[in-house]
């Protein structure tokens, strides 16, 4: 078996590993209170309400790009 025959499957395995790891990073984190909250909503037949009309939270950084403040 030559080294080239090993390289092709190795590249495929490495690329597959990167794809799987990046897909795992896209999931939203579940908070501890989220499971309890969902359980209480089901248990007591509560309606989930969301507040509409809130402005987007945009925070401006007071740091300049690539500059460290001391």
What is the secondary structure topology, with strand pairs?
Layout: H1 3-25, H2 32-43
Spell out the key features of this protein.
70 residues; 2 helices; 0% strand
Structure in words:
By secondary structure, the chain is an all-alpha fold. Helix content is 50%, strand content 0%. The protein is built from 2 helices and no strands. The chain is flat.
Note the main sheet.
Answer: none
Helix proportion range? 40-55%
Span of the ends, CA to CA: 58 Å
Radius of gyration: 24 Å
Shape descriptor reads flat
Number of helices: 2
Succession of helices and strands: HH
What ranges have pLDDT less than 50 throughout 5 or more consecutive residues?
none
Number of strands: 0
- What percentage of the residues does DSSP assign to strands (E)? under 5%
Query: Which structural category do the helix and sheet elements fall into?
Result: mainly alpha
Mean pLDDT level: 78
What's a concise summary of this model?
The chain has 70 residues and is an all-alpha fold. It has helices at residues 3-25, 32-43.
């Amino acid at each position: 078996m030559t080294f080239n025959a090993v390289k092709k499957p190795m590249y495929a395995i490495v690329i597959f590993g990167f794809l799987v790891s990046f897909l795992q990073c896209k999931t939203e984190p579940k908070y501890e209170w989220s499971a309890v909250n969902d359980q209480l909503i089901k248990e007591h037949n509560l309606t989930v309400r969301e507040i509409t009309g809130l402005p987007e939270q945009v925070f401006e950084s007071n740091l300049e790009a690539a500059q460290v403040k001391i």
